[in-house]
Amino acid sequence: MNKHVVNDPRTLALDSLRGLVTSHPDLELDETYRVVKRGSGTSRPISEKVQLVSGGGSGHEPSFAGMVGTGLLDASVCGNVFASPNVGQIRRGVELVSSGAGSADSNKGVLMIIMRYTGDVLQFALTLEHSRSTNPSLPISLIVVGDDVSVTRTQGTIVGRRGLAGTVLVHKLAGAMAERGDDLEAITTRLNGILGNIGTCGVGLGHCSVPGSGGGDGDDEEEQAHLAADHVEIGMGIHNEPGVLTIPLTKASELVPRLLEYITSTTDEERSFVPFQHDGKDEVVLLVNNLGGISEVEMGLIAREAITTLQGQGIRVRRVGTGKYMTSLNLPGFSLTTLLLPRESDTATGLSSDQVIELLDAPAIAPGWIPLYEPRELSDCLVQLPEKSATPATASKARREIPFAQDGSTLFSDAVKSACESVIQAEPEITKYDTIAGDGDCGTCLKAGAEEILKAFDQGLISDKDVPSAILGLAEAMERVMDGTSGALYSITFNALAAGFHNQDIKSGPTAKNWAIALSHALESLYKYTNARPPSRTLVDPLDAFTSAFSESEGSDLDGAVSRAREAAEKTKDLVAKAGRAAYVGQETLKDRQVPDPGAWGVVKILEGLQKVLSDEK
């Protein structure tokens, strides 16, 4: 997607920072140099803590400016999109957090934390050297984070590993140590000791689009040749740099373990950077980072797969954070980061595993910081429902049973199964219509209900022996998986259909006339809860047409009733929607494309499935 909401791409970085500080009262902005800093009322005096400065190119929000706040950064220096800030900006950032320094004894100093990219390293290193030569009384140090495990040792011989989302964990550790009063040397030493324990691997489903560049939507031939629509790229950089491996898009349960293998492997001479021991005692902090274009519903799945994969390897996940920590504009992708916690024998960090966790748990308030939490076993998170005293198949035993006309007949189950198979087969067609006329889920919703009904039959939860019980079994199966408007409408209809038989005096089993009366009762009940009336371009159009025709013939003309329903569904192609999601869609577009209402089409497919068995029976 290469569309962006901007005023001027050249001023986007500054415009964004203006919005950030005006909506967060604890932040201040130096517009000239694009430096965001903690407000004077929120930061401890300079003489009491080490001041933390970070930064880099814009486009990675909430990093870096969004990580300015209590317990995190004191200032962020922001370059243009994907461009490192210049030395003048960085000097200004250092000046803003160190102003008022008198001597080394009265100032705790400044620690700059950056990602390993050539421009950032050169500009911040130049600032470091300039400060040491012009202000020798100011203690100042530089930490360079390189956590990308997709870059091989051979590739990184000169430039080293790139910095990725693991940098955010370094910000948090540094911020917590600074807040508690650790000195600059101690913080620098501990962080340098822990950098080798951080590994990150990302994957892109496509490229991001840089505002003003006009690219990134995958339409140009060069990009399509680089990454096909059904492929993903492992190791894609956060500035659209090519990855290290292109593979077909696969399930999350296969993709996530593959990324983690890059991080946790100890047998790959080129990529085994993190010293895992795989002896059942490894402990990690996990960061599941959204690179900008992955939906939150997918992120939940990815987080779950990452946790279970690590646990399956005998690796304990002490803390997990999920969300947008470091993005790449709108890149559709995610990255996984693990911080391997130190063991007692690991003296390089000067910290124990519990001390690292304590630092990560320390209070922090910043616009972009998402707290880390201790993951729980899924079984501990599930609501425990009381055991049912009876299954749907036997739940109606207390009621008067209304048997089918022929003892041992499977006509009901045969007809319902045929209807389910008809819906499942028609799912792509219904989904196509709903993608145009609605939100695209009608076909999959109906398919899920049909599959659940078939499963209920296989499990013996629906029986041919008792009419109301069997129909309620259908309703309960659908209620387990069908949500939204369709699920509610079908549930109301089937529950009312079952009740329609209780209102009749049937001794030897329901006749076609009894079914007609029950269907009319169901339709009347449904109309109590929806204002849709034919013609309305909804599922009630064919449902009403079928019920009316079936009732008029007292159940003797099933084929005619199905034909009437089909005609009603066909007519929805030319109707203006009065209800449902299609009411919000351009009506002329629907007419021009001759798109029938998806819900109405689903009703027809159900009826055609029933007709296939019941007409043969006649």
UniProtKB/TrEMBL annotation:
The keyword Nucleotide-binding applies. The active site is at H239 (tele-hemiaminal-histidine intermediate). The keyword Disulfide bond does not apply. Pathway: Polyol metabolism; glycerol fermentation; glycerone phosphate from glycerol (oxidative route): step 2/2. Gene3D superfamilies: 1.25.40.340, Dihydroxyacetone kinase, domain 1, Dihydroxyacetone kinase, domain 2. Belongs to the dihydroxyacetone kinase (DAK) family. This is Dihydroxyacetone kinase. It comes from Filobasidium floriforme.
